[in-house]
Structure formats: structure tokens, C-alpha cells
Design goal:
alpha+beta; six-stranded mixed β-sheet; 8 helices; 30% helix
Length: 321
């Protein structure tokens, strides 16, 4: 039998959680426990990074539009304003729904930054991952993309970096030409990516009369997808009241068909006739917003018919994230 290793009576150094550095997963934990890092303090660190944040954009100006641009809108940009001054050599930061080759971010030749929103993220907190990518972009060389990585568990979130008082005003584009200020001199890879993206983009328009409502055109019919800030249960009750009363539509030939659940918010969806444009739906949407506000204010128990309507809406709900 192998001899047992003699035990030392010397005390291992005691470190607080805040002092534990990050090391390789299979290395001894710096806390002195004798266990591997991944089975000791690394376990809590990994859990903190991967734990799903249900509403990653909560607290940001324009939360509903953040959700829409993440999940529903093909091509859009928003100028972002930081809490602090921009770093030297960075004239602007622009959020974009998607970037060429699905880059997480791009530092342009002039030093400006494009931050991609519709990317896979390494953790369960989209806000922390985006903030980490943005910070990497600050120091990236002009003219280079930024690659994604696992954000530190204690790193900042967008809520820490962005000005909470600044307006969030998406500009919806018909294509992705905003990628390339000088399309004639774009690389073949970017040009090919631009052509593919433009071919796949669904025509989309943001309504002006209500918040976070987006009209889109498909082959057979058009749709309105409207991200709403209300608590899910309260909103479903209100939609059920309107649906049971025959007041959930947006005009002749329209129909409330269900809803998405995305990043902690609910997104009702209407089918529209193929001939109904975004401009045509502006007034009906504003009128519906008034009906919805009245229904949200009611605290009366749902009737049997309203409960059936609610069950139908719930059964047709799809979770996107």
C-alpha cells in the first residue's frame, strides 16, 4: 500500500470570497480548501454567470423596444448614450439588431462602435454579456470586429453603463446597408453577408402612435406584434375581457391570434389582411390601446366566457426566451 502523505499542521491562508481569484477549472482552488476550483468557489461563479435573468432589459429606457429589436425586428439601429463620457477616440455607440457574420460588435475605421443585439450569449444574462462586449469594443483596434466571450460574473450590465434618462428611439431600416458606409469598398465577405441578410429580411415598420408595436409583411398576410410592459397575468385577463366582448381586433379582417413571451414581457400578435399597411393600422392600434387601458383597470372576476377566452389565448402562447 502507498504510504499516506503526512499531514501538515500549518494553517492554510483564509481568503474571503471577494479575494478568490479566477483560475483554471481543474486547478486547486486558491481559497486553500484542497479542492479543484470548479468544485469549490468556481461552482458559485459559474452559477452566477449562467443563471437565467428573466428580464435582462428591465430598468433600461425602452425595455419593450429592446425586446422587439432582440426578437422581432430584422434591421434596426438605436443611438446609445452612456452614463459617462465616451472613451477618447469613440465618437458614438450604436445598437444594431444584427451585424455582418453575426459579429457581437464592430469598431469601425472612424472609431465608432456598432453593438450587435441578436447574438447567442455565453451566459444567462444578455445584459451582462452585451455590456462586456461593449467594453471590449472600447479598446478594440479601429476597423476590427469584437468576438464574444463569457462575461465575468461580477462584470457590469447595460444598466450600469447606459444613461437611464436617455431616450431609446429605434430606427427601422428596410435593409442592412447601415453596415457599410462605403458599400463599394466593402470586403467580399461583408458584401455576401449583406446580400443574404437583405434577402431574408421581413419588411417591418414601427408604429408611431403607440409604443413598441411593429407591423410586418409576410407572403400570405400581415401581422402586428406589440410588446407590452404589463404584468403577464394582468394583461392576459385584460385581453380575455376584450376578446370575449368581441373587441380585441384592430378592424375588419383582423384577429388577435395569440402572443409570444419574450424576456419577461408579453407580445400579443394580430393577423392582418395582406392589403392593410402600417399606416392603416395606426388609428385602430391607438383605439385598441384605450380599450386595453380600461380593461386593465377592471378588477372584476372573469366571467365564464372570459375564462374560456383566456384559456384560448394561453394555449396559443409561445415562449421565445
Amino acid at each position: 500500500m502507498a504510504k499516506k502523505r503526512p499531514q501538515t499542521k500549518a494553517k492554510r491562508p483564509q481568503l474571503t470570497d471577494a479575494e478568490i481569484p479566477v483560475v483554471g477549472a481543474r486547478e486547486p482552488c486558491p481559497c486553500g480548501s484542497g479542492r479543484r476550483y470548479k468544485a469549490c468557489h468556481g461552482r458559485a461563479a459559474a452559477h452566477a454567470v449562467t443563471e437565467l435573468v428573466q428580464r435582462p432589459f428591465e430598468g433600461l429606457s425602452g425595455e419593450c423596444d429592446w425586446v422587439a429589436l432582440r426578437e422581432l425586428v430584422p434591421a434596426a439601429t438605436v443611438e446609445l448614450k452612456l452614463r459617462d463620457e465616451l472613451p477618447e477616440g469613440v465618437p458614438s455607440v450604436t445598437l444594431a439588431t444584427v451585424l455582418p457574420m453575426a459579429w457581437p460588435a464592430l469598431r469601425r475605421d472612424d472609431g465608432s462602435i456598432l453593438l450587435g443585439l441578436q447574438n447567442d450569449t455565453a451566459s444567462g444574462d444578455i445584459s451582462r454579456d452585451l455590456a462586456d462586449t461593449l467594453q471590449q469594443a472600447f479598446t478594440a483596434a479601429p476597423g476590427t470586429p469584437v468576438q464574444g466571450r463569457r462575461a465575468p460574473a461580477d462584470g457590469p450590465r447595460l444598466q450600469d453603463l447606459l444613461d437611464p434618462e436617455a431616450s431609446f428611439e429605434p430606427v427601422v431600416h428596410s435593409g442592412f446597408e447601415f453596415w457599410v458606409p462605403d458599400a463599394e469598398n466593402a470586403t467580399p465577405e461583408v458584401t455576401a453577408s449583406l446580400e443574404r441578410a437583405n434577402a431574408a429580411a421581413i419588411p417591418t415598420v414601427k408604429l408611431t402612435g403607440v409604443d413598441a408595436a411593429y407591423w410586418c409583411e409576410t407572403t400570405d398576410k400581415n401581422h402586428l406584434r406589440w410588446v407590452m410592459p404589463h404584468l403577464e397575468e394582468q394583461l392576459l385577463d385584460a385581453l380575455a375581457r376584450l376578446h370575449a366582448a368581441g373587441r380585441s381586433g384592430l378592424g375588419e379582417g383582423t384577429r388577435l391570434v395569440g402572443s409570444f413571451r419574450a424576456h419577461g414581457l408579453t407580445v400579443p400578435v394580430w393577423d392582418l389582411p395582406s392589403g392593410m399597411s402600417a399606416q392603416d393600422i395606426e388609428k385602430p392600434a391607438a383605439e385598441f390601446a384605450e380599450r386595453l387601458a380600461d380593461a386593465l383597470a377592471s378588477d372584476a372576476p372573469l366571467t365564464a366566457e372570459e375564462r374560456r377566452a383566456r384559456g384560448g389565448l394561453t394555449n396559443r402562447q409561445v415562449t421565445l426566451s
